[in-house]
Amino acid sequence: MSDNSNDLQQLDLCREKIDAIDHRILELLAERQGQVDRIVSVKKKHKLAVYHPAREEDMISARRSHASTANLDPDFVEELYRIIMRRSRIEQTGKMARKGVRPGASVLIVGGRGEMGRYFSSCFSDAGYRLRILDKNDWHRVKELCDGIDLAVISVPIDVTVQAIFDIAPFLPENAVLADITSVKKAPVDAMRKAHKGPVLGLHPLFGPTTSTLDKQIIAATPGREDAACRWVIEQFTVWGSIIVTSTPEEHDEIMSIVQGLRHFATFAIGRFMARTRVPIKRTLEFSSPIYRLEMGMVGRLFAQDPALYAEIIFASDSRRDLLKAYIESLQETLEMVEKGDREQFIREFQNVSEWFGPFGEQAIRESSFLIDKLIERF
Question: Which end of the chain has fewer CB atoms at under 10 Å, N or C?
Fold first, then answer.
């Protein structure tokens, strides 16, 4: 028998062994999922959160250490286990979604036929709550819909949120929690405190209605009144897998002016300039680096969505508009540097900003490199 024939037989044998190993891996994953199901039943019973960050990071560290001793790439093993753990969280979240922290409680969604209203209506309904919807054509039934409710969630556009709060408040039971999910918090929370004598809670989901799971989705919470009475609402989102970030309404709005207002405005400005100058997007993507594609993905994503929503976010308040004016003034100063062709000033400014970012610069390189690698795999 020739060496070539022996090599081919060896190759076939190796492939058969790999297939057998893959079969064992799948069986082990199924066995692991069985243990996850047991964990879900315990978490449901004791109303425990799906996401346990310290536990996950401990697991990743242990798997990386094991990978090193097994002569495997720790980065590869970490990526593999993060996929496994995310899938596990999604499975848990899906099953926990059917668990209500306060079973049988009545929840009213004001604006429940809007996109976010429908999203949270589904969440509460699937968890066993008695759901009621009050939309713009239902106000003639407001007294009936508010009778005996435990939670009213205001899910309407920013510019009508305060009015909706004052309109609904006279019909609410005094012990009902009044909450809103608007992307600004000071004005709505002030309005809820003034209009309603009972528990008040400001919420801001930092995600959109196309989100497939609440796993690790951030929800900002700004307490308004009677925190203990509002606690079950926070616990419900935690059970669904969300991460709750608590702040004052003032701090929330200040930070959101940067996180949403400035960021979306800058993205809008880039897209507007490219459209006006007729940049050949498809052709640029053929020449693009992964980071350019990533940046264009964010620009394109903005313009594929509802313009009215982004107008609300960008022009939400006088202070937000003041921030945008300050940003434009900064751009004007940068333009003067460009007009002079002052490279030395550019380098100095670059270094100053780099020092200001500090250690986050290295973190940003790691995180963006991960995203770039994923884009390379995709495209």
Answer: N
Asked if 314 and 268 touch (Cβ cutoff 8 Å), the reply is yes
194: amino acid identity, one letter = K
Residue-wise pLDDT tens digits, 72-122: 998 888 888 888 888 877 777 666 556 788 988 999 999 999 999 999 999
Q: How far apart are CA 176 and CA 196, in angstroms?
A: 9
Rounded-to-integer distance, Cα 349 and Cα 375, Å: 31
Domains parsed from the chain with CATH numbers: 3-96 (1.20.59.10), 106-247 (3.40.50.720), 252-341 (1.10.3660.10)
Q: Are 324 and 265 in contact (CB under 8 A)?
A: yes
- Confidence at residue 228, expressed as pLDDT on a 0 to 100 scale: 96
* Residue 280 reports pLDDT greater than 90: yes
Convert the pLDDT of each residue in 197-221 to its tens digit: 999 999 999 998 888 788 889 999 9
